[in-house]
Amino acid sequence: MRPPILALKDVRLVDGASTLFDGADLALEPGARACLVGRNGAGKSTLMRLLTGQIAADAGERFASPAARISVVPQEPRIEGETLLAYATTGGALPHEAEATLEELGLDPQRGTSGLSGGEIRRAALARMFAEAPDVMLLDEPTNHLDILAIETLERMLRSSRGAALIVSHDRAFLERTTNRCFWLESRRVRRLDKGFAHFDDWADRQLEAESEEMRRLNAALVREEHWMQRGVTARRARNEGRRRRLVSMREEKATAMRDSRKSLSMDMSVASTSGKRVAEAKGLSKAFGDKVLVQGFSTRIQRGDRIAIVGPNGAGKTTLVKLLLGQIAPDAGEVVLGTNLQIAYIDQARADLDINATLWEALAPGGGDQVMVGGQPRHIAGYAKDFLFRDSQLRQPVSTLSGGERARLLLARALATPANLLVLDEPTNDLDMETLDLLEDLLAAYVGTLLLVSHDRDFIDRLASSTIGLDGRGGVVETPGGWSDFMTQNPGFFSATGPLVADAVSPSRAVEPRPAAPVKKLAKLTYKDQRRLEELEGLVASLPAEITRIEAVLADPGLYARDVATFDRTMKTLGDRRAELARCEDEWLALEEKREQLAAQ
Q1: pLDDT tier at 142 (50, 70, 90 boundaries)?
Q2: Which three-class secondary structure state does DSSP give residue 567?
Q3: How many of the other CB atoms lie within 10 Å of CB of 547?
Q4: What is each CA distance from 505 to 338, 403, 498, 509, in whole angstroms?
Q5: Around Cβ 52, how many Cβ atoms within 10 Å?
Q6: Contacts of 173 (CB under 8 A, 6+ apart)
Q7: What is the rounded CA–CA span in Å between residue 61 and residue 57?
Q8: Residue 221, φ and ψ in degrees, nearest 5
């Protein structure tokens, strides 16, 4: 193995009465693309600051290669300078390199640095990092505020980079596509897996099972030793002193293990009375702001129990479409008819509904008192807050003191306690750790109401959505059964004209439109077998698109998935097979056509 560029060895760090790390090891060598996984509050960002040298450990060593260039994209980047190009060159990047990376990430190099959206701030920070061509890249939640297409561009840039990378992220799909190593920050230690994140869950489960067995053995040994202490410690006191010390040590070991044991997040949901079968029906919706057309002639019907994901580039109008469907803003054309008995709970991506000056207690019980109703049952505020991993000492602290992940959990706690039969989640995954995401996903999967989900998390959408609505930012809106992967399979090229971010988002081999077929002349110089095959392929290239269109028409029924999952799955498989067959036929047809032309030119 090559020597590390950046490493921590046997690091210990104490914060007041709490030990954050004890004997932590972490090393990055050239070519390593690692993720750092751990719960919110486990100390991932602190560990990153130790790596950069911003803070010093109480014990242990930090090593950085003297010539190593280290670039950091923090969780909340600050963009300063007259223009984005000026900002991107402040770390020493060459102007032409900075300009190229800014444009690759969809930003105008000459744009000023004020008034940027969250996604633009993130892309500017990433562009500066890549322009510097560092030896080590440290990225703290790099996908926050990025749309799916920008995330796919980031994935491509990371894979083509020569630098080592350490990534803190909650985005499973992103980590699976970019990492070849995992560091797990758990119980004050860093564990290492020399495989990508796709292997993490199985490995982590095995680790926890082994620890559970070790705790069981420790408990059994402790019972035996305590029994011995009660019966025999007074006799032969000197000879038994070593055994007594061992018992004390075992008690301390168990206390430490119990202190470090994983606290379990608990979620429950309040559900209102059942809504009408029709939740909302939109006919011919159109909406524009000035010259910017966001929605053009879109129609859909949302039924009780549907789980609708809404995807598209930042600024394409996803939140606008949600507000149109909820009747919160009026369309320029068309109409929306809402169903009966709707009770709505809404989590806004901007978290504007949180009063940062209010205490956590007041946020959970804005009307006063010490109880909140959850699932029809009264819960004390302190007990309910503990379900979301809040300490008693935090209840009287203002919301402004909470971290991003804690604010996200607070919003979830409030929304899930609100009786609702229509749950609207606008970017709910930002700042949540994976364990919280998994629990939220399980809760939503069992939710009997209707769900509208705006998210950039592809894995989250694939696991939850019964249908997906895509907006291209130019007024085009398409709805497809299934999640993100299904949408991209059934709508290749839908986002291809949105801008530079999506140049590689859709593989040309997945296109269903056939290449223009030139008239095939009689080929004297092709073999009889090749000539027959060429004619056969010409017929297939002409007929397969029509068959694909017929299959897509079947899948366009938004209720098919809910009515007949088996038929939906079979139809999806047939569609994939036909598209793959068309791609193979086109490639073979082109190869034979080129061969014919070469022979004719001889």
Answers
A1: very high
A2: helix
A3: 15
A4: 35, 33, 11, 12
A5: 16
A6: 457, 458, 459, 462
A7: 8
A8: -65, -35
Q: Fold for 508-601, please state it.
A: Helix Hairpins (1.10.287)
Cβ-proximal residues to 546 (8 Å cutoff; 6+ apart), any chain? none
Q: Encode burial over 504-517: b for 16+ CB neighbours within 10 A, e otherwise.
A: ebbeeeebbebeee
Determine the Cα–Cα distance for residues 599 and 263; give it in Å rounded to an integer: 73
Element (H, E) at 425: strand 422-426
CA distance 156 to 572: 28
Residue 227 identity (one-letter amino acid): H
Contacts of 153 (CB under 8 A, 6+ apart): 104, 105, 106, 501, 502, 503, 504, 505
d(Cα 541, Cα 515) in Å, to the nearest integer? 8
The Cα 38–Cα 405 span in angstroms is 12
Please give the CATH architecture assigned to the domain spanning 278-355+403-497. 3-Layer(aba) Sandwich (3.40)
Taking alpha carbons only, the member of 416, 397, 441, 487 closest to residue 148 is 487
Per-residue pLDDT at 269: 58
Nearest alpha-carbon partner for 285 in 320, 316, 310, 312: 320
Q: What is the dihedral sign for C-alpha 184, 187, 190, 194?
A: negative
pTM over 0.85: no
Residue 37 has pLDDT above 80, yes or no: yes
pLDDT per residue as tens digits for the range 384-414 = 888 787 888 888 888 888 877 777 788 878 8
Q: Would you say residue 110 has pLDDT above 80?
A: yes
- Please write the tens of the pLDDT for every residue from 328-382: 999 999 999 998 888 888 877 655 567 888 898 888 887 788 887 776 678 888 8
* pLDDT tier at 282, thresholds 50, 70, 90: very high
- At residue 221, what is the residue type? A
Its sign, for the CA torsion 81, 121, 503, 178, is: positive
Give 102's pLDDT tier (boundaries 50, 70, 90). very high
User: Which CATH number, 3.30.70.100, 3.40.50.300, 3.30.360.10, 3.40.30.10, labels domain 6-202?
Assistant: 3.40.50.300
Residue that has been written with the tokens 């009780």 in this structure: 304
